[in-house]
Amino acid sequence: MASRSLEEIEKQIRSLQAEAAELKLTEGIQQLRVVIEKYDVGLSHFRIALKSSKERKRASRELPPKYRNPSNDAQTWTGRGRKPRWLIEALAAGITIEQCKVT
After folding, report:
1. pLDDT tens figures, 71-90
2. Beta bridge partners of 67
3. CB 102 within 8 A of CB 75
4. Would you place residue 51 in the very low, low, confident or very high pLDDT band (cuts 50, 70, 90)?
């Protein structure tokens, strides 16, 4: 058995890795064709699927605050999501939510 150099072995490894990648790609393309035919997928569908999740989310618009902490003007709440801690504490202290409403 003839001894091979490290360079020859590394070249063979690279060649086999490229061949494996090509086989995976071919298999993936075949699966993609099945999906395209089954679901009647078009180019516009691929554009949607390839957009990043940030792009797909509706445009984030900053909402104006509806409520303000009476003891700290810097703390506000838009009225969406969980109530902030300052509002929960204010309500527990007897302040009404109407008193916190921004006018």
Report:
1. 999 999 999 999 999 999 99
2. 77, 101
3. no
4. confident
20: its two tokens? 């494996």
3-state DSSP of the chain: CCCCCHHHHHHHHHHHHHHHHHHHHHHHHHHHHHHHHHHCCCHHHHHHHHCCHHHHCCCCCCCCCCEEECCEEEEEECCCCCCCHHHHHHHHCCCCHHHHECC
Tokens 């490229």 identify what position? 18
Q: Which residues have C-beta within 8 Å of that of residue 90, sequence separation ≥ 6?
A: 69, 70, 71, 100
CA distance 77 to 86: 10
**Does residue 53 carry a pLDDT above 70?**
no
CA 32/CA 42 separation, integer angstroms: 12
Q: What pLDDT score was predicted for residue 83?
A: 95
Confidence of residue 11 (pLDDT cuts 50, 70, 90): very high
